[in-house]
């Protein structure tokens, strides 16, 4: 721990810790509004949060890519 309640292996930057200090000082309703606005912006731009399930995201991305691939008749089977 760094004395602020954060473990270095969590990967939270110094800027992130600084931002959290300000956010925690806000009333609960304002924090909720900020979370929703930030989450919407990040998701629109394709960013993940520390709480997202990366595996689920990768599986959706693979499924989307396979839908975009051409359908072909295989000449040889793998395996």
Describe this structure in words.
- The structure is a single chain.
- The protein is an all-alpha fold.
- The longest helix is centred in the middle third of the chain and has 17 residues.
- The N and C termini lie far apart (50 Å).
Distance from first to last alpha carbon:
50 Å
Count the DSSP helices.
Answer: 3
Largest sheet: none
Number of strands: 0
Sum up the overall morphology in one term: elongated
Question: Characteristics of this structure?
Answer:
79 residues, mainly alpha
Break the fold down into its secondary structure elements and pairings:
Layout: H1 14-24, H2 28-44, H3 54-68
Summarize the structure.
The chain is an all-alpha fold and 79 residues long.
